[in-house]
Amino acid sequence: MHISTFATKLINRESLTGRNGLALFINRLFVLILIVTSVINGKCTNGDVESRSTNDEDIDETPDYLNSRVYRIVTNSSAVLSSLAELYDSGILDIWGMPSRTGTDILISSQEEESILMSILSSTDRGKSDLMINSSSPNSGDNFLLKVIIPNVKKLLDQQDQHQYNHPPSRVKSSGGFLTWNEYHPLETITEWMENLAKFYPETTTLIKIGESWEGLPMHLMKISAPPSEKEHNSTQKSFQKRGVFIDATIHAREWVTTSVATWVIKELVTDSPSGQGLLDRYDFYIAPILNPDGYRHSWKLNRLWRKSRRSISNWLIACRGVDLNRNFGHEWGGQGASRSSCSSSYRGNAAFSEPETRAVKEWVEKMKGEVDWAAYFTLHSYGQKWMTPWGYTNTVLPRDYREMIRVARIGTRALRAVHGTEYEVGSSSDMLYLAAGGSDDWWTGVVGVTYSYTLELRDTGLWGFLLPSSQIQDTVEETWAGIAASLKAIPTRLV
Ligand code: 0X9
Ligand code: ZN
Ligand code: ZN
């Protein structure tokens, strides 16, 4: 079923194109061969109906990344971009990001390297004779640049394993509130840290369980709210009501540095550090450092580069795992850039909010309606150094308050840059990256009605990608928090 619907799609698109016919046809052929071989190789292994078994299946899912490389393709050729999109959509390619004109980073293993590159190159108008690494073809109509940005993924992973091994994650002190930002931490450490924090600072923090993941892990939200000050106590009339700020991280499992930022923000707010001064007078914070606990745990245990949740989806032909939770939110769900194929790393799921993880957020936000007046939403992703607004589902219209969103975003990126000189780009995600429907940012603006809804793609721009070394965590958390804090200060107060 999987293969045949895909083939029909290819044939339909083929008949639409005309010119470039042969190149496209060859390209489609490669894509088809790739799908068939990847099914046979057991990339999508046969399996029974929904099972929660985590042993046998998981072992198959631990790729060794031996001789895998990350390539960057920069092109304005729509044929190449659409061929990339198809490879991604069908689940063959893990694109670190998605096909876009500013550059597409793809992870390719040595076994697949030749066929995938051939397939991509055959869709350029100059055909496969262009197979030149690190070269561009300036004299053709379309620009095309292919270069290796991470020559040996395995080596990088091994180095980082070694590092984790030499510096085992520090345990939470029983006094509560001790975590480090010079290394990454597994799920249990972060959960334990939050639990202790809530015990140690009961006046300001509350640990809220908003639901459970597919594998039954708790989903936590830390509420940070300053107790009313003396001034507020004494005045009979409040001049303004506190508004809510929601920050989440690790919707995508492998984007580890986002969790470091979320926990840093919690720490800065709770310990009343100067960086957050004044913010707790205006806002209550709701922070979820790990929105995809199953995926995060999997990325520690078996596959560092895992992106999606861990639901198992199987039918008679295929058994793949995971839903891209950032394609599962219910505003214009199922539109462009959200795959129907469960093997794709951008699989949208069965329906809007079909996943326990996204549903937990939705139901909790609905429950809080009337109680919290949301001012801003930040969802932390990596990588790319971009501060993005909705919409992700369309690039033909912009949100009503786009100009105001950009004004505040610029204040954020300026403050961010002032810390360590890190440059961010500002704009809507569909303009800067690609179309992708079902993202959390679109839902917060389109359904919840929050003006300042942002997706932040943190460091870097591809040198390390998701494997950002732990030596960069401290700088990343400092600058990101400076940016978020400055942008929150730039939001006009609302009088009641
Ligand atoms: O594709 C995504 O979900 C985000 N990029 S990432 O590389 N971290 O996967 C960008 C999401 C932008 N927002 C929407 N498309 N709604
Ligand atoms: Zn270290
Ligand atoms: Zn992401």
Using the alpha-carbon principal axes, give the shape: globular
Ligands present: N~2~-sulfamoyl-L-arginine, zinc ion
Helix content: 25-40%
The strand order across the widest sheet is 6-7-9-8-12-15-13-14
Tell me about this structure:
The protein is built from 16 helices and 15 strands. The protein has 496 residues and is an alpha/beta fold. The strands form 3 sheets. Strands 6-7-9-8-12-15-13-14 form an 8-stranded mixed beta sheet, with helices on both faces. Helix 2 (21-40) packs parallel to helix 4 (78-89), helix 2 runs antiparallel to helix 5 (110-121) and helix 9 (257-270) packs across helix 16. It is globular, with a radius of gyration of 23 Å. The N and C termini lie far apart (57 Å). Mean pLDDT is 83; it is low at 1-19, 42-56, 127-139 and 171-176. Bound molecules: N~2~-sulfamoyl-L-arginine and zinc ion (2 copies). One zinc ion binds next to loops.
Q: How would the blueprint of this fold be written?
A:
Blueprint: H1 2-17, H2 21-40, H3 56-60, E1 69-75, H4 78-89, E2 94-95, E3 104-108, H5 110-121, E4 135-136, E5 144-150, H6 153-166, H7 187-200, E6 205-212, E7 218-224, H8 230-234, E8 243-249, H9 257-270, H10 279-282, E9 283-288, H11 293-301, E10 312-314, E11 319-321, H12 356-367, E12 374-382, E13 386-389, H13 402-420, E14 425-428, H14 429-432, H15 440-448, E15 452-458, H16 473-489
Parallel strand pairs: 8-9, 8-12, 12-15, 13-14
Antiparallel strand pairs: 1-3, 1-5, 2-3, 4-5, 6-7, 7-9, 10-11, 13-15
The structure holds N~2~-sulfamoyl-L-arginine and zinc ion (2 copies).
